[in-house]
Specification:
elongated; two-stranded antiparallel sheet; five-stranded mixed sheet; 3 domains; alpha/beta; Phage_Mu_Gp48; 279 residues; single chain; DUF2313 domain-containing protein; 9 strands; 6 helices
Length: 279
């Protein structure tokens, strides 16, 4: 019997051996600090700055403020001040935008500088990458996993755009496991092996008139970025296996009136089917 750690987005995941399943909320890892722009100077308008700007001028009749009178906001002098303040309004907004570049979640103009700081692109950055791909790779690197758990792997894959499940096989151990039990026999050390099961692998098919015979594969997919990122942080003493095969779903057996069919112990009967067999 294996232990499973599954992205909660994989709602129809079915543990074929009935092993325990831990659901991982991968979206929790995307929770970014909520920076509230409460400061009035975050993105001020000229009208916001005008009263303060007029107060900087000398006082007196020549400046439109005789006998300490408050300056008019509609005077020619006020319009001149507004023209000058337009530059400062842009400056304040730009300065605030610069502070947001300090968080990988909100960068816009400094992606290349962030990539250089974190050693990107690296060997895991395969093929042509869009700005969104580059951002996902950067944020996965910034996350910097200090310790590695199955939940960390599920969340890392989610950052890269993949929904995965982690299987930790339970090996058959003489003197401990029972015959006809769910302990697995293997010619490798299962205690050191874990499996990454990937849902909905992006794939490309051979297309007549477009693909090249002898060069293009009938079915091809490239998950080098995912595999490289996971192998980079996998514990050195473990062996990770990637499974891209279609995974079965579990369908509960019911009677004609919709009642569940159960065993003598009251456990519902479930049949495993591949989704492709249902179409």
């Amino acid at each position: 019997m294996s232990t499973w750690h599954v992205n909660s987005e994989w709602a129809d995941f079915h543990a074929v051996d009935g092993g325990p399943v831990t659901w991982i909320d991968a979206t929790a890892d995307f929770a970014d600090p909520n920076v509230t722009a409460d400061d009035a100077l975050t993105a001020p308008t000229v009208d916001d700055l005008l009263p303060s700007g007029l107060a900087l001028w000398p006082r007196g009749a020549a400046w439109g403020t005789p006998d300490g009178e408050a300056p008019s906001l509609t005077s020619v002098f006020a319009r001149l001040t507004s023209a000058i303040l337009a530059l400062f309004a842009d400056l304040y907004a730009r300065a605030w935008r610069l502070t947001e570049e300090a968080r990988s979640a909100s960068i816009v103009d400094s992606l290349e500088e962030w990539e250089a700081e974190f050693g990107l692109p690296d060997p895991c950055s395969t093929g042509e990458m869009t700005a969104a791909d580059r951002m996902a790779t950067l944020r996965a690197r910034v996350a910097g996993l200090p310790s590695v758990t199955p939940a960390d792997i599920v969340m890392l894959a989610a950052r890269l755009g993949y929904v995965v499940a982690i299987e930790e096989p339970d090996a058959f151990i003489a003197g401990v496991s029972s015959l006809a039990g769910l302990g697995e026999l293997s010619n490798s050390d299962l205690e050191q092996q874990w499996v990454v099961i990937v849902r909905e692998v992006p794939a490309s098919q051979f297309e007549a008139g477009i693909a090249e015979t002898g060069v293009s594969r009938l079915l091809d997919f490239d998950n080098g970025r995912l595999e490289c990122a996971i192998r980079r942080i996998a514990p050195a003493w473990t062996r990770v296996v990637f499974n891209y095969a279609e995974q079965p779903i579990g369908l509960a057996l019911e009677t004609g009136d919709g009642s569940a069919i159960v065993t003598e112990t009251g456990k519902g009967l479930v049949v495993s089917l591949l989704p492709s067999n249902l179409s």
